[in-house]
Amino acid sequence: MTRAWAAVVVNYRAGALLTDCVRSLLTDSSAGEVELVVVDNGSDDGSVEALRHAVPGAQVIRSPGNVGYARAANLGIAATRAPIVAVLNPDLTMEPGTAKAMLARFDEEPALGACGPRIRNVDGSDYPSARRSPTVALAVAHGLLGLWWPTNRFTARYRELDADPSQPRSVDWVSGAAVWLRRGALDAVGGWDERYFMYVEDLDLCWRLRRSGFDVAYEPAGAVTHVQGASTSRRPYRMLVQHHRSAWRFARRRLSGVAVVLLPFAAVYLVTRCVLAMAEHAWHASRWSPARG
What we know:
The chain is α/β, with parallel strands linked by helices. The protein has a single domain (5-292), classed as Spore Coat Polysaccharide Biosynthesis Protein SpsA, Chain A, CATH 3.90.550. The protein contains 10 helices and 11 strands. The chain has helices at 17-27, 47-54, 69-78, 98-108, 136-145, 153-158, 183-189, 201-211, 236-254, 263-287; strands at residues 5-11, 35-40, 59-62, 84-88, 92-94, 112-121, 130-131, 169-170, 173-174, 178-182, 215-226. The strands form 2 sheets. Strands 1, 2, 3, 4, 5, 6, 8, 10 and 11 form a 9-stranded mixed β-sheet that branches. Strands 7-9 form a two-stranded antiparallel ribbon. Helix 2 (47-54) links the parallel strand 2 and strand 3 (59-62). It is globular, with a radius of gyration of 19 Å.
């Protein structure tokens, strides 16, 4: 029997957080039993073994190494059958009733292709997970100013910081950390683009969904708590490089026609921003190092 929804958890060295995530998904029975799959990207931290001990019936797919978020998501989606499938980070927990709220949104809006829940940080604050698709000017201004001045008006516009996080709305894109997707819409656009290893694949997916006539929405009646960067914080500089490499891939897809003349400038900008982001990270880390108390 096909269940109403499926959950694909992409794991990479999430430790005990993976088990907490899976338990929270299984506990929420508001939309019936979930069809749950964990796709592990070659973790060697014992997270999968701990999950199997805590939840013996958990279905785990071992990918051929660390294949990236998009490919792992596609592997998990292919192993499920439900018409609505959520793709989730392993370092989050889902609040009870979220499944029912998210599925209700899809029932109400037949053209809805992707929907993101309210994402809270561990301190209870809201993470700006529903955002605007950036224009070239907005991307440049946010990318540079946002490193040291996160409340500047360009970053605020891009992250839609003036929006009420308690109100549902239509948006350009939602974070791939927790996103519910209509299988038919995914099939129509060819799924997640596996050429992205990490980062920007969510922006790319929502952009392609909207170009194909599907809607993207934010639904705060569903909510998750997310531990930001549990897997990526171990290699911050490598992740910064991956982030900007993914941004370059999206720029090459987005800039077409006469706008392709901007690609050389985009390349220079992204290299420059990557170096600045590394410098900002190093400066921040030095300020909070144990040696400085």
